[in-house]
Amino acid sequence: MKYIVQFEIILAISLMGELLNRIIPLPVPASIYGMAILFTGLCTGLIKLNMVREAGKFLIYMMPLMFVPAAVGLLDNWAVMKEFIVAILVISFVSTLAVVAVTGHVTQFIINRKRKEGGK
Amino acid sequence: MREFFTESLFFGAALSMGIYVLGLYIKKRYSFFLFNPVLIAIAGTIATLLVLDIDYSTYNRGAKYISYLLTPATVALAIPLYEQVSLLRKNFTAIMVGIASGVLASFCSIFAMALLFALNHTEYVTLLPKSITTAIGIGLSQELGGYVAITVSAIIITGLFGNIAGEVLCRIFGIKHPIAKGLSIGTATHVMGTAKAMEMGEVEGAMSSLSVAVAGALTVAAAIFFEGLI
To answer: Closest to B158 (Cβ–Cβ): which among A39, A92, A108?
Structure first.
């Protein structure tokens, strides 16, 4: 009973996200609206953690698998992708390195500086 | 027999999930980062489809029910984020500045590489959304006039890279703080990287989830400026 209610709450929020995606003319997907709705709901206490927790954790646990069909779909895109494959691979690789390094170090720098100031 | 596969509703889902489970066992047995269950499932599924000469739309007739759960799963990312909300409040500035700097690094590196490869405007804007989650990336690519199918490919390749190598990259670059690790992986490699960050720890997972939403929004906002550069 508990799990089906939890799952339904998450599905209902996904539906609300879909609705917002339909009526607001921004390139924001239903899933991100839904994430914002659930987060706001939890923060305001409108939704309690035990109303979504187990079903949510199960979905998150299964999540890596959910990317497989889309990635297999690259097979269909191969004809258009072929021409750019070197550029796509190199740019994806290099910019991922850049983003990981910059984001991580900027965040670490600010956290450490704040901690030092706080320690004085 | 082939007819059976092309008519089956469960073939695609059972095939990919089966190879994924096999991948989980292989990962458990040998802890080498290339033995990644997602990568094994993708490669195994593609190989099977090619060998049996089954096309993607046939496969996807069953497999789409796996993808169907992706929206509710992404919604559920709000749960670990909420569980870390006090950490978010305490480090709000560091987190927001960190993600913003990552988005800027993404644009600058793509811009530099586009010059290097002498890409034209359409090819350049096609790759601009490559670090953000697929659904936002598709919208942005359409808006900017890019090749949407290639944008999707670049997003998936980037995400797969993050899922496979995210943890290793953090180690190489000396990123040790769990908040910084989560933000790095989420900002660079969206939801697919976040799936990996979830395995690394609760803080990493929560921060990665947050950065998917924030980086997505910032990328859409900043793209207006960067698209005009080439």
So the answer is: A92
Residue in A13, A39, A47, A107 to test binding to B, most B beta-carbons within 10 Å: A107
A13 min Cα distance to partner chain B (Å): 8
Tokens 């089954």 sit on residue: B54
CA proximity to B222, closest of B101, B54, B107, B80: B107
Q: Which domain holds residue B218?
A: 78-229
Q: Is residue B145 part of a domain?
A: yes
- Residue B43 inside a domain? The answer is yes
Q: How many CB pairs under 8 A join A and B?
A: 319
What tens digit of pLDDT does each residue of B86-139 get?
999 999 999 999 999 999 999 999 999 999 999 999 999 999 999 999 888 988
Residue B145, helix vs strand vs coil: coil
Asked if B60 and B133 sit in the same domain, the reply is no
Residue A79 has pLDDT above 50, yes or no: yes
**Residue B73 maps to a domain:** no
Please name which of A97, A12, A83 lies closest in space to residue B188, comparing C-alpha atoms. Answer: A97
CB contact under 8 Å between A100 and B101, yes or no, is no
Task: Enumerate the residues of chain B whose CB falls inside 8 A of the CB of residue A28.
Answer: 136, 139, 216-217, 220
Check whether residue B106 and residue B190 sit in a common domain. Answer: yes
Q: Tell whether B31 and B63 lie within a shared domain.
A: yes
Query: Total structural domains in chain B?
Result: 2
Which residues neighbour B92 within 8 Å (Cβ) at sequence distance 6 or greater? none
